[in-house]
């Protein structure tokens, strides 16, 4: 199909050239989100001190509950009244199953409630690989070190510090605001599920939900040099897929062809060579339409004429991989492989696990069908260990999105705000059943190096970044 389009474009070259150039010339930047120039003044030292105390709680979640220290989770929860006293004076507070925490800040109305989310559990650490102790919350050269400093105790602290500050000023929101936190997000726990069930049971329909997701980043979109504030309006699905091949085993001295390891490897190579079809979904199309207009001439030509250059873009994505490719298609990452337990034994069973991130245009069933068709080997059993479908796509042509976008643009002045597709998973996916205005934005500006420390060694945050998170939530809550 793409080859046919190119042939037709060459045949009608003069007309094609005129169309392409006119569309490129008219592909000019849209107005950015509204910027509020007022300055927000609050206690930044207390903001940092509170975050330090949260980090010192070793709230490490694990798929095996026996490896979790429940005392550390209780320690964090018990600290909250002293860290955020005004919140506890004014807001109701409920503990829900699976470490769900829910605060309600009563507003003047209850018609259009907002929900601010975060999770307070963190992933495990290899302490010997850290330059600073991961739970000591050391501050050095304007940087706070610690597990959870980015993911996501900074937003947990940002939400509660903002509310505490505004309550002290006597501010009352126009509508109810809920603070919804979970202590098991990193292990796909049910804390957020119980909170959503609470909303359903009490007929509460959020008008706005904000959770972790995008951030203010640089050099992530081709040809765009200014910082970009990315707001996720949807997230990809996720599945862990198990590939299994069985045999009678045997001694390695007399091997027969097509051992389990060979057949598993062949399946891996087939899927590596034939990636999923690309899809220009709504979140990505809106991102291209926003950021593509601010790119260099060559990229503006591509993004304004995808009717002609979609094949070229697809080829670039497949060759380069990385974030742009992940936005365009379902991706497959082979992460685990096992065979024989002895060097001289043909394995009676070989297994391989792939972590799959499902494009919103696909589904778990489409993924499974594609795997079976591409591998085309009845000896390879393919099954889903666990997984979730892609999320609902949220609205952008509404007041709720504009509120978030304005808070981003006002806090990080000079950035261009854009919708995007989140390629990771978050607790916010559960809210799709009750809300079509769920936005994923981690209230931080991050360098590529800082992003790499999330779930990695030496996670850390600049103090300025931590206080900016509070400024963002203050601005957002004022509009709720």
How would you describe the overall organization of this protein?
The protein is of the alpha+beta class and 480 residues long. It is built from 16 helices and 17 strands. The chain has helices at 2-11, 13-25, 44-55, 70-83, 85-90, 153-168, 191-201, 260-273, 282-291, 297-303, 306-320, 322-328, 364-375, 399-411, 448-452, 463-478, and strands spanning 92-96, 100-105, 109-119, 139-140, 143-145, 175-182, 208-217, 228-235, 237-246, 250-251, 331-338, 345-346, 349-358, 381-388, 416-422, 438-445, 460-462. The strands form four sheets. Strands 1, 2, 3, 6, 7, 8, 15 and 16 form an eight-stranded mixed β-sheet that branches. Strand 4 and strand 5 (143-145) form a beta hairpin. The chain is globular, with a radius of gyration of 25 Å.
Distance linking N and C termini: 48 Å
Largest sheet: 8 strands, mixed
Number of helices: 16
The level of helicity is 25-40%
Global morphology:
globular
Summed over residues and divided by their number, the pLDDT gives a mean of: 95
Beta-strand percentage range: 15-25%
Strand elements, count: 17
List the uncertain runs.
none
SS content category: alpha+beta
For the CA atoms, what is the radius of gyration?
Answer: 25 Å
Task: List descriptors.
single chain, 480 residues, alpha+beta, eight-stranded mixed sheet, 17 strands, globular
List the helices and strands and how they pair.
Elements: H1 2-11, H2 13-25, H3 44-55, H4 70-83, H5 85-90, E1 92-96, E2 100-105, E3 109-119, E4 139-140, E5 143-145, H6 153-168, E6 175-182, H7 191-201, E7 208-217, E8 228-235, E9 237-246, E10 250-251, H8 260-273, H9 282-291, H10 297-303, H11 306-320, H12 322-328, E11 331-338, E12 345-346, E13 349-358, H13 364-375, E14 381-388, H14 399-411, E15 416-422, E16 438-445, H15 448-452, E17 460-462, H16 463-478
Parallel strand pairs: 3-6, 3-7, 7-16, 8-15
Antiparallel strand pairs: 1-2, 2-6, 4-5, 5-17, 7-8, 9-13, 9-14, 10-12, 11-13
Helix pairs in contact: 1-2, 2-10, 3-6, 3-16, 6-16, 11-12, 14-16
